Structures are given as C-alpha cells and as structure tokens.
Amino acid sequence: MRFWKLATATITATLLVGCGPPQVDQSGSGEDSRTGTLRVWLFDEANREPKEEVVDAAVREFESDHEDVTVDVRYIAVDTRSERFTGAFNDPSSAPDVAEFGNTDLASYVAAGGMSDLTGMVENWPAASDLSDSVLDTAKADGKIYGVPWFTGVRALYYRTDVFEDMGLEPPRTLDELVETARTIRSQRPDMYGIAAGGKYTYAMMPFVWAFGGELAEREDGSWRSAVDTEAARRGIRTYTRLLDPSICPPDQCSQMTGTESVQAFAGGKAAMTIGGDFNRTAVDEGAAGDDYDVIPLPGRKPGSVAPAFAGGNLLGVMRSSNHSTLAQEFIKVLAGKKYQREMYEAMSYLPTFEDVQDKVAADDPAVEPFIETLQAGTRFVPSTPAWSEIDAQEILPTMAQRIATGEDVRAATEEAARRMNSTFGE
C-alpha cells in the first residue's frame, strides 16, 4: 500500500515553505560521548505510524550495534519548527543531537551557528558516492555539507490523457510546444484552462528560468546578486507568463493561484495540464482526473530535454551543540542510508536520494518513473542564503509574474524584482 496522502502534509510544508533565520548563535560542546542517550527530532505526520515503524526498526538496529546507547526519538510539528529550533539553538541542553529539517531552512540554521559541518563524514562514507549530486547540493552552504539528504521531491507535467486523445494531441516536447498546446486546448475547450499555472506558483516558474539558461541569483565576491533581470532569465520568465493569458489561463483567475490551487484545478477537472509534484499524486488520483491522466518530465527548450526542477526535500543533520557527535553521524548513516530510504519510500512514498535506490524504485513502480527521470536529469535549488526566506516571504517573484501577466513590460517587471531582491541580499 502506498501512503501518498499521509506524506502530503509534511512534504508540502517542508518542500515549499522556508522560515526566517533564528537570530541566535551557539558554540560546539567539545564533548563526544559514545554512550548514553542520543536525542533525535523528526517531523510529525498526519498519520505517524508508517514513518514511526521504519524509524523504530532503524533505532533497534542501531541500538543493537551500540552497547550502552539509547535512542530517544521525539516528533515535532512542522508548523512550529522555527520556534523549536530557535529554542534549541539558544538552550543546547534542550537540543537534540540529530534533527530532521527542510533544505530551504538550511541556510538560516547554518547562519545561526546551529548545525555541524558534515563534509568529512559524507566524503568518507562509501554510500554517499551514490547520492544524487544535485540533491546533495541542497545540503550545502558556503561549499560545506551540513546534512544528509533523507528524501527529496520534484515536480513534473501532469496532463489529461482523455483530453489529449480526444483532440489528437501529443504531449509537448518543449516549453514552447507546451504554450502552444495549452492554447490549442483552451481554444477548443473553453471550459478548461489549457494549463493551470498560477502567478504565485514560483516553483513552477523556476524550471522555465533554468531551462533558458537563466539564474535566480548569482554570487559575486562573496555576495548574492539577483539575476532575474538578465536576458536568459527574462526569456524563461516571459515563456512562463505567456501561460497566464486569456487564451490559456486567464490572469483574472490564474494570477493569484498558488501551487496548491493550480494542482487542485487540475485534480478538479478544470485544467488539461498542470505542473505538480510526486507528492500530489493522491490529490489527483482522488479528483475528477481520476485514471485519465499521465505524467511526463517537464520538457526543456529542445525536444528530449528536461527542464531542471526545484529539488525540495528534508535533511538529517547534527546539532553543533551535540555531545554525541560521532554517534549522531553514525545514526544518520543508518536512518538515511540506502536500506531505510527504500523502506521509507515503501511506507511514505518519499523519493530516495541515492540514485541506485531511485532506479530500483522506478523499476518497481512505473508511476514514479517521470519524477525519478526528472531527478536524474539534474535539479536546481534556491540561493543558499538566509535572505532567500525574506525574498520568499515578500513574494517578490510572484509579484513580478503577476505584473507581467496583467500587462507590465517584462523588462520593467524583472528590473524592479531584481532591485528588491538586491535590497534584501544587502546590496
């Protein structure tokens, strides 16, 4: 049995939402005990049982191999993670040794001085050679590794097979074909959006920027600077915002749509296509689309290419205050290792981060293959800086997309977005 629905709440929160940087600092304990209690924080679930069964199995294995060690696992709410981590950074006595956290929170936690550098551990761990390079990049800040990717999530193109068959259409092979296909569908099926593409769906727009060779931001002399006003980025932004058009997805209805709302429109039968995650499958399965849909990787600029997807996901890291650092690293190697990543996929449908495990999963479950193909084509990530949480909270990129959708010139909108981003970066 697959637990897609059980995973959705946590994945949605941890893949899509960042939190501001805790304004604290801490120092390492200097101790490294090999016995005693190893404290672990993991995120809670709508239904914890499947996840807990896998974690408990890993704990039993670890405790059997480590005499005089007890693993104490606590489950914390995703929505209160910022307060919990800030409290742990301020009061090391209340902090865990091992913690699960979202990769979009990494830069903030590192800036707070809260996480241990795991570069040496990963580089000396034989299994790590099979970690997806682009997913491992989401665990890095300033070139150092601060977590082991435990699971990941990406988005691909959902489309209605019945609509395509009725109209004699083939799935789009390029982003330009995607635009034209969506327009054709809307012209013949005015009751549907050609594609549900929200103005507030930044994670759907990002692959367009990257596919056209653009960047969200670039690092120069140690500082981040916006790149959305470059010509390459503008081409991607222009292509995406062409979807927010009366002939495809009317701006008065779509410019305010979020990612969740875009997927809901598809699941509810209001759209012929959408860009959705592996974690959205249950919602689509239970909706009007039912069995009449398929998924392919979001195409890139040229036929046969895949647009780079944003790689969301969660990491397992070691708190800098831990006095069980070696034990903590050894436990992470067990829980985030290949054996339990596969078991976590079976329990929660979390996509594994080891490429050989991904291959086995795709072979056993063809429905997940488009997402694995997207992962292995190479994913991208947001700038690794605490400032990104502020840029996200200010909705700078959604505002830019909405302005373009409602008639503003692309150059003017991207220049304004770049100005606001640079102000936040601390230009």
- Look at the structure and name the CATH superfamily of the largest domain: Periplasmic binding protein-like II
Strand order of the largest sheet: 2-1-3-12-6
Q: Count structural domains.
A: 2
Mean pLDDT: 93
CATH class of the largest domain: Alpha Beta
Which range does the strand content fall in?
5-15%
Our count of helices gives: 20
Number of strands: 12
The CATH architecture designation of the largest domain is 3-Layer(aba) Sandwich
What does the largest sheet look like?
5 strands, mixed
Spatial extent as radius of gyration: 22 Å
* Distance between the ends: 51 Å
Low-confidence stretches: 1-21
Q: Estimate percent helicity.
A: 40-55%
| CATH-derived topology of the largest domain | D-Maltodextrin-Binding Protein, domain 2
Protein model, in words:
- InterPro entries: SBP.
- It comes from Actinopolyspora xinjiangensis.
- Belongs to the bacterial solute-binding protein 1 family.
- This is N,N'-diacetylchitobiose transport system substrate-binding protein.
- This protein is an alpha+beta fold and 427 residues long.
- The protein has two domains: 4-153 and 311-377, D-Maltodextrin-Binding Protein, domain 2 (3-Layer(aba) Sandwich); 155-309 and 394-425, Periplasmic binding protein-like II (D-Maltodextrin-Binding Protein, domain 2, 3-Layer(aba) Sandwich), CATH 3.40.190.
- The protein contains 20 helices and twelve strands.
- It has helices at residues 4-16, 49-65, 81-90, 106-111, 119-123, 133-136, 161-167, 175-188, 202-211, 231-241, 251-254, 259-267, 281-285, 325-335, 338-348, 355-364, 369-377, 387-393, 396-405, 410-425; strands at residues 36-43, 69-76, 98-102, 140-141, 144-145, 148-153, 155-160, 217-220, 223-226, 273-277, 293-296, 312-318.
- The strands form four sheets. The chain has a five-stranded mixed β-sheet with strand order 2-1-3-12-6.
- Helix 2 (49-65) runs antiparallel to helix 15 (338-348), helix 18 crosses helix 20 and helix 19 packs antiparallel against helix 20.
- The longest helix has 17 residues, at 49-65.
- It is globular.
